[in-house]
Design brief:
19 helices; mainly alpha; 471 residues; 61% helix
């Protein structure tokens, strides 16, 4: 392996130190232990006692509303560091996130050059949006790691096809999906890429079509093996076929309020509405003043919505009767406004997830744009949005340099964006899984010309070459 110059190691260590400092700052300044983190923690604690379930007033009840990937991670952490020792979990996530930074840099070095790899490492280490999520027990840090791992391993597989590399890639696919159902998009994007790029790759040998298909098929097959016991468990426990997690995170038989969800989808385009209305449905009173003007098609519909919310607020519960009224209101709003419902609003939600200031973890006002109420918050949020936009614009510039594996990178981003456009309520964190690709493309935009021929070795010491797979 070609040794890296001493100055490169210095810059690598400085980037990792700066990245660690940023993440430790978020852990000490903005730790987040409410909502979903406590659900994951409860499942992990109960799993340590033999039941994958949620604690209720009458005891522990089995559940399938979350996949086992992150509860498994927490259960391992709890068994080592102590139950509910969430601070240790956060510190471990710092190390995992820094490993993701190295994987992104290694990926860029193999497809472009060493200068771009160093830039990628700094862009990843100092990215506050991904760093912020190390301060909460949620799936984002591990999901980002799986995506960075998958793209780095894909390059290794194309350079030298081998069983060990193939298994490593399948594990990345599996664990990404065990963390979140949308993690399956990684396999959907990269299994075809194995066939396409192994047939015309500038990174390694050109393979005959039968062998390329074999690589992709075996990788996909291996990646679904962990879901067999999970699916069997769900069938045995709940008598339902559920290989992933349900869309609305509800156990079989629980009411999912489809009318309220569809009504929300007829107007919601921003994270503030997600937090103020969508998350509070079925738990808290809803204030009609929190609804934007687009939630009403005229004064008559405003009065109709107000009466419905007033009736809901008497119990703060989405009963089947109240939910049916939300469903009727949603149908009324969709009728005659098909373009708005099926195109304009999904695109607006997607734009919010990509472009909104990523301040949801910073304990600042959710309505950050109300300058007269909190000018400092508005200015900070605008700066945060500008930084996010810089990352995206640099990534767009990287696209125009047409790096190797561009199709594989864009495939995942496009597939994920299409899926996110189907959601009722946007959350900016759902686009963070694309940031390994955003950072890689941004570094390529800033990294000069691509090295001719095969790229040199990764930043970290490589494992011994895997034995080649038989054709």
């Amino acid at each position: 392996m070609r040794a890296l110059p001493i100055r490169h190691w210095i810059w690598i260590l400085l980037a990792l130190a700066a990245g660690a400092a940023l993440r430790l700052y978020f852990i000490h300044a903005y730790p987040a232990l409410e909502g979903d983190p406590l659900i994951y923690g409860d499942i992990a604690k109960n799993w340590l006692h033999g039941v994958f379930g949620i604690t209720h007033v009458n005891g522990v009840r089995p559940t399938l509303l979350r996949l086992p990937g992150y509860p498994l991670f927490l259960a391992v952490c709890f068994s080592i560091f102590g139950v509910e020792h969430y601070r240790a979990v956060m510190y471990l996530q710092v190390a995992i996130d820094l490993a993701s930074c190295l994987l992104i840099a290694g990926f860029v070095r193999r497809i472009w050059n060493s200068r771009a790899a160093l830039i990628a490492l700094w862009l990843a280490a100092l990215c506050p949006f991904t760093a912020n999520y190390t301060a909460t027990p949620l799936t984002e840090t591990l999901s980002i790691f799986c995506i960075a791992w998958a793209y780095y391993t894909l390059v290794r597989l194309l350079e030298r096809p081998g069983w060990r590399t193939l298994v490593a890639l399948a594990i990345a696919f599996s664990y990404a999906t065990l963390l979140r159902p949308d993690g399956a998009l990684l396999a959907v994007a990269l299994c075809p890429a194995i066939v396409l790029y192994s047939r015309q790759s500038s990174l390694g040998p050109t393979l005959p079509l039968p062998r390329a298909l074999k690589l992709a098929f075996v990788c996909g097959l291996l990646s679904i093996l962990p879901f067999i016991p999970w699916t069997l468990r769900n069938w045995h426990t709940f008598h339902v076929f559920q290989p992933l997690a349900p869309r609305y995170a509800a156990d079989p038989g629980e009411f999912t309020a489809p009318g309220f969800n569809r009504w929300t989808k007829t107007w919601c385009v921003e994270f503030a509405s997600t937090e103020e209305i969508y998350w509070n449905g079925n738990t808290s009173a809803l204030d009609i003043n929190d609804l934007p003007a687009r939630a009403f098609d005229g004064p008559a519909e405003y009065q109709q919505t107000k009466r419905l919310l007033d009736d809901y607020n008497l119990v703060s519960t989405l009963t089947p009767q109240i939910d049916a009224r939300f469903a009727a209101l949603a149908a009324q709003r969709i009728r005659g406004h098909w373009l708005r419902y099926y195109l304009q609003l999904p695109l607006a939600r997607l734009a919010d997830m990509w472009l909104r200031p990523r301040t949801e973890m910073l304990w600042i006002e959710i309505r950050w744009w109300e300058y007269s109420q909190h000018n400092a918050v508005t200015e900070f949020a605008a700066a945060y949005a500008a930084l996010n936009l810089i990352y995206l614009l640099l990534a767009l510039a990287g696209v125009f340099r047409r790096p190797p594996l561009l199709g594989a990178m864009l495939a995942y981003v496009v597939l994920r964006s299409l899926l996110l456009a189907t959601l009722e309520a946007p959350e900016p964190r759902y686009t963070l899984e694309c940031f390994p690709i955003v950072i890689a493309l941004a570094a390529i935009a800033l990294g000069g010309r691509r090295r001719a021929g095969l790229v040199d070795q990764p930043l970290a010491t490589s494992a011994p070459p895997a034995s080649s797979m038989s054709s």
